[in-house]
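In this supplementary section we document a worked example of the pipeline. Step one takes a protein sequence of length 308 as its only input; no multiple sequence alignment statistics are reported here. Step two produces a three-dimensional model, which step three serialises into structure tokens for compact storage. The input and output of this example are shown verbatim.
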Amino acid sequence: MTDPIYAIGTVGTPWGQPEKTRWLSQQQIKRSYQSDVLSQLNALQQDFDVEQYGRLDYRELVGADYPLFAVKSRHWDPTKPSVLVTGGVHGYETSGVHGALAFLRQQALSYSQHFNLLVLPCLSPWGYETINRWNPEAVDPNRSFITPSPAPESAQAMQYVQSVTANWLAHIDLHETTDSDNSEFRPAKAARDGTVNTNWNIPDGFYLVGDTKQPAPAFQQAIIEEVAKVTHIAEPDEQGCLIGEPLVQPGVILYDTKGAGLCAGMTDAAFVTTTEVYPDSPRSTPEICVLAQQAAICGALDHLLNQH
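The serialised model returned by step three reads:
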């Protein structure tokens, strides 16, 4: 099904600066990064190192700047395996942010006995506040983990992670697939790029995106099995696909994470996955989505503990 024409731009013509400026003028602050995210970091300082790794200076564009924080195992040991957890690369994908924070509050300390843990809970705070996929310059951070990066959200995260002395074993990147992908974000992308969008079927349930070059099926399966205790796993569509990609095992599709510039491709970790929950399902709630993100992280870490 081809979507209706997006309200900004001319069909077949990529956006210029006037269209991007018009799009930005329509974005509104809907929630607070300070209240929802930064306010939780103080309590974590008792058990973890909380480090500011960057700042997004968007004062000229939106009248604000945003400090960026990471939460890190206190006794970092470069000889131990290290695990990276990222959330809020797409700021509108709420449970990624809150799942990362809930994991830090409830489970991370026990796992830090075995792993160095580095958690970046909200990479795109303006996107979080405006419930947006893009940054203020109409750039998708999760297609921008390349060098040089067009998105400061991605560039500053990459620079920080590369500065950490670590033997990266795994990276778990927390995301959602929402109905607004079809109603807003995919049509907006087509308009921005001057292309025609064909909406995909939004999977009803949890699924994973592994890495084409290192699929790690047992790792993915362990995560799916743990999440299935909390919420339902997405079934493939009539073509055996999820979001247009063929299912390679129950609840799992694959992308070329580095080739696509995805956050999950920013390290050389052997075990990589991107979670996708569906908050708009009648069978789900915001609380269930957060629990699913926590279960995914714990399922991944338990598997690694058993295997390594």
